[in-house]
Design a protein that fits this description.
This protein is α/β, with parallel strands linked by helices and 317 residues long. It is 26% helix and 19% strand. A hairpin with a 4-residue loop joins β10 and β11 (261-263). The longest helix is centred in the N-terminal third of the chain and has 13 residues, at 44-56.
């Protein structure tokens, strides 16, 4: 279905949980989330009904996200059922990777085609600092497991943080020579919950091009990523610039939170509740949300933070 600005909305990001086994400083508070009652969250059946309703309106790509989707006990059943929904052509997952050593083959069997793994540093001490509780070796084991499980594509997402990982841009980009992966650098988005990051932390993707002048521009975009390549590399380097060059004009997505709220725009507080609705009600609500997509969100900066009203783990990124 097209929105009011002629954009074809064919991509749903489904958050299956707000909880996470990490506590990344730019994403969520140290103490985690305030416990919500089970009844407030979407059940697996409600999630599937929402996916079916979205697919009936032209959504064909589904990304399962969170919080950390792989801590969800019924994650394999969710993936299996979602990939069987008529009209859904692609099921992808975004994960911190730490549970992939146990789950990668089963996810592949459950119909997941593509996996994005979040990895902001290759330094164990820095990984522990940015995630507050994580161990780098688990995430790297997850990357290896994903590569062995035969997914159609494995991508690595790295949030660029000035003074934290800008010195690692060449080493991180070099992963595209070592492995058949795409390495995507993403600008840190100023959310209400990440005020500990000052202006120096928000660096544009152009820093990657300054650090790596040998990157060759590709002719293709991959969704919202501008693609580049290192010579001899097996995968691309992607630059995703939601802050320095927002891509609202090409936005084709809707987000569904784990507590059942549709967000027409990541950076707006406007939400449409699906919890408790039947198929027809969900379908109508999805249409309403699509038609409520704004032309663009306001420019983001340290002084003009996202108006979303939720921490990122409660949206899904
Ligand atoms: N837990 C999974 C993970 O980390 O991949 C999925 C959920 S996480 C919220 C989805 C993506 O959002 C991750 O790649 C994460 O790095 C990104 N993210 C979280 N907060 C962000 C922020 N403030 N700016 C840019 N990206 C952010
Ligand atoms: Fe968890 Fe992902 Fe947020 Fe990190 S970015 S705290 S792994 S949800």
């Amino acid at each position: 279905m097209k929105d009011d600005f002629g954009r074809e909305i064919n991509y749903l990001r489904l958050s299956v949980t707000e909880r996470c086994n990490l506590r990344c400083r730019y994403c969520m508070p140290e103490e985690g989330i305030c416990k919500k009652s089970h009844e407030e969250m979407l059940t697996e059946d409600e999630m599937m009904m929402a996916v079916e309703a979205a697919a009936s309106l032209g959504v064909h790509k589904l990304r399962i996200t969170g919080g950390e989707p792989l801590i969800k006990k019924n994650i394999l059943s969710i993936c299996r059922r979602a990939s069987a929904v008529e009209g859904i052509r692609e099921v992808c997952i975004t994960t911190n990777g730490t549970l992939l050593p146990e789950l990668a083959p089963a996810l592949r069997e459950a119909g997941v085609q593509r996996v994005n793994i979040s990895l902001d540093t290759l330094d164990p001490a820095k990984y522990a600092r940015i995630t507050r509780v994580g161990r780098l070796e688990q995430a790297l084991a997850g990357l290896e497991a994903a590569l062995s499980a035969g997914f159609e594509k494995v991508k690595i997402n790295c949030v660029l943080i000035g003074g934290f990982n800008d010195d690692e841009i060449p080493a991180l980009a070099d992963l595209t020579r070592m492995y058949p992966v795409d390495m995507r650098f993403i600008e840190l988005m100023p959310m209400s919950g990440n005020q500990e990051f000052g202006p120096e932390a928000f660096i544009p993707c152009s820093c990657v091009l300054e650090r790596l002048p040998e990157l060759e521009a590709g002719s293709r975009h991959d969704g919202v990523a501008q693609l580049y390549k290192l010579s001899g590399a097996r995968g691309n380097v992607g630059l995703i610039s939601p802050v320095s060059a927002h891509f609202c004009g090409e936005c084709n997505r809707l987000r569904l939170t784990a507590d059942g709220h549709l967000k027409p725009c990541l950076h707006s507080a406007e939400e449409y509740a699906l919890k408790g609705l039947d198929f027809a009600g969900m379908r109508r609500q999805i249409q309403t949300a699509i038609l409520a997509k704004p032309a663009m969100h306001r420019p983001l900066s340290v002084r003009s933070r996202s108006l979303t009203g939720r921490a990122m783990n409660r949206i899904g990124g």
